[in-house]
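Weekly sync, protein design subgroup
Attendees: M.S., D.O., the rotation student, P.L. (late)

Item 1: inverse folding check
M.S. brought a backbone from last month's batch and wanted to see whether the design step gives back something sensible before we order anything. D.O. pointed out we never logged the input encoding, so this time it goes straight into the notes. Structure tokens as presented (307 positions):
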């Protein structure tokens, strides 16, 4: 089989999608949107981040959002956590999974979390240990895997070092971030061929931003190499505030259109994601980047599924 039969989609729209939005989406609207996503068949939703609210005002209502949503059994509600203060808030909000994050490039790490790579390790180690001790699951992110907005090319050795260190801390899964959407399929193949010699495919997820339109091609090549978990965001909303020029994640809508068309099972209801995209587009007050969403919106009555 060239492609896997099943793919897991981890929805990051309420976190990665909203963190960079200029318009503050009210707590009530965030909750209503996440509740819609909860009933779409998605099994993991990254709902917010417990970062310093002065850095990311768009998600300053993290505790209210996490405690206000209706939790569906079988759905993991995840959030980003950068430090001890963040973990306290995440525990107070009874989050299921805490995701720690850092970059493979020094400058992006400093701009994003105000620390050197070396100084970040002990902080994240403590967070992962406390998360696991509390019976919650722990995820890791490594950003700028395929390029850094400040340094350009990123050494693969640096990606390996950060990834290995995060796994040694005890994270259950590592998400490899193309933070500024610069990767191309050949580069993805080259990077994954090296990483897959060290880490099992089941423990890796890919996190592509679609800044230059290469995200789906990168996902296809990742699937061919055995990766079965992808992060995406409803409508293609999103971007990293500390990565100039970064635009949205690959759109959940586009990913579903491609995967379902290929006969690959995701368990996610495309029509419900379409409705969630419509909802959040209205709230952010501008067209969402997802091509399949825009195509479906402009062809009212036209069937969404391509099979
Ligand atoms: P800092 O300002 O250096 O922290 O932030 P500090 O320890 O010096 O604390 C300063 C003040 O902030 C203190 O309050 C703390 O209590 C408070 P004061 O004593 O002055 O009154 N504070 C907090 N309050 C609430 N919750 C907290 C918290 N932390 C401190 N968690 C920090 C350091 C790491 C927190 C900051 O740099 C930060 O929040 N960074 C996060 C930036 C961010 O969210 N970036 C986007 C997410 S990463 C991403 O998008 C990439 C990804 O999608 C993958 C990819 O695409 O590659 C994951
Ligand atoms: Mg991201």
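Designed sequence read out in the meeting:
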């Amino acid at each position: 089989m060239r492609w896997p039969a099943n793919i897991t989609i981890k929805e990051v729209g309420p976190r990665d999608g909203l963190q960079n939005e200029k318009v503050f989406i009210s707590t009530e609207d965030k909750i209503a949107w996440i509740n819609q996503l909860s009933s779409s068949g998605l099994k993991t939703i990254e709902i917010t981040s417990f970062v310093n609210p002065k850095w990311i005002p768009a998600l300053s209502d993290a505790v209210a959002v996490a405690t206000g949503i209706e939790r569906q059994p079988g759905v993991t509600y995840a959030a980003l956590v950068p430090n001890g203060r963040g973990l306290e808030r995440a525990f107070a909000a009874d989050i299921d999974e805490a995701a720690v994050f850092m970059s493979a490039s020094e400058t992006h790490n400093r701009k994003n979390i105000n620390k050197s790579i070396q100084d970040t390790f002990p902080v994240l180690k403590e967070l992962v240990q406390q998360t696991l001790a509390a019976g919650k699951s722990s995820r890791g992110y490594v950003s700028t895997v395929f390029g850094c907005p400040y340094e350009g090319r990123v050494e693969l050795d640096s990606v390996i070092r950060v990834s290995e260190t995060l796994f040694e801390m005890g994270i259950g899964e590592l998400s490899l971030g193309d933070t500024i959407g610069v990767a191309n399929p050949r580069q993805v193949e080259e990077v994954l061929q090296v990483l897959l010699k060290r880490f099992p495919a089941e423990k890796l997820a890919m996190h592509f931003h679609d800044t230059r339109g290469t995200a789906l091609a990168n996902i296809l090549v990742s699937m061919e190499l055995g990766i079965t978990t992808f992060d995406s965001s409803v409508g293609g909303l999103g971007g990293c505030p500390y990565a100039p020029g970064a635009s949205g994640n690959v759109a959940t809508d586009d990913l579903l259109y491609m995967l379902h068309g290929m006969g690959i099972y995701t368990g996610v209801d495309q029509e419900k994601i379409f409705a969630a995209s419509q909802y959040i587009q209205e709230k952010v007050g501008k067209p969402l980047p997802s091509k399949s969403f825009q195509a479906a919106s402009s062809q009212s009555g036209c069937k969404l599924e391509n099979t």
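Discussion: The mean pLDDT is 95. The radius of gyration is 18 Å.
Action: P.L. to compare against the previous round before Friday.
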